[in-house]
Amino acid sequence: MPSARVVPGVQAGGGSGGGPGRFKRALLRNLILGLRKGGVASSEMGFHERKRDIKRAADAALAATRGGAPCWSRSLAAELAQHRSVAPGPASSGESCKAPPPPPSSSRKMFCKKIVRSLRRWPRPVNNTTAANKAYGGAGAGVVLARAMVRKRTSVLKEIVPGGKALDMCTLLGETLDYAVSLKAQVDVMQLLVRTLQEQKLKKSVAKKQQ
């Protein structure tokens, strides 16, 4: 298994002060350690077993590298801690994710009261399309459809993002963005690792032919 220093592509995209390059280097180190600990290079391991262990090692490395700040990394580390083949990373806390309570403020309370008063003046949405069109001035069907699509996509996001079922809408959107960016870094690191292994394998085969 190669070390993190032999993958030059990770150096691009960030300096020593931080950024995506530094995150990818740390992710690569954690991934290599997890793969070595899981013994995925063993010839006795089957294809499906190796695939499962690589996935768990990659997720554990991602959660450990991202840290315990986002909810999804804590939830992912807690899920991985249940499997003996992959040890939980430093981000594992076992705590359930809950949406952080908003700070109390007079401006926020006034804003919420205005929303409640404005909603009370609006007629309640009904399932009847004709009645909804009359109530909303012809746009009721579009409003009902838009709300249904939002609820459907929100439920899908809660299933995809680890720990998303316990989050509210605003927190879920932030967690989704953070999770997507982290997954992109994970894919980039794994692709670099695969290319490096393929290059090393090709060099060894060429060296054997020349001997």
What's this entry about, in short?
The chain has helices spanning 20-38, 47-66, 71-80, 106-121, 129-135, 140-160, 169-210.
Explain how this protein is built.
There is one protein chain. The chain is mainly α. Helix content is 64%, strand content 0%. The protein has 7 helices and no strands. Helix 2 (47-66) runs antiparallel to helix 3 (71-80). It is elongated, with a radius of gyration of 24 Å. The chain starts with 19 loop residues before the first helix and ends with a helix. The model is unreliable at 2-17 and 85-94 (pLDDT under 50). Keywords: Transcription, Transcription regulation. Residues 11-21 have a biased composition (Gly residues). It comes from Oryza meyeriana var. granulata.
How large is the share of residues in beta strands? Answer: under 5%
Biggest sheet overview: none
- Which series of helices and strands comes N to C? HHHHHHH
Query: What general form does the structure show?
Result: elongated
Provide the number of structural domains. Answer: 2
Number of helices: 7
Mean pLDDT rating: 75
| Helix/sheet category | mainly alpha
**What is the share of helical residues?**
55-70%
**First-residue to last-residue Cα separation:** 24 Å
Give Rg in angstroms.
Answer: 24 Å
Number of E-state strands: 0
| Unreliable spans | 2-17, 85-94
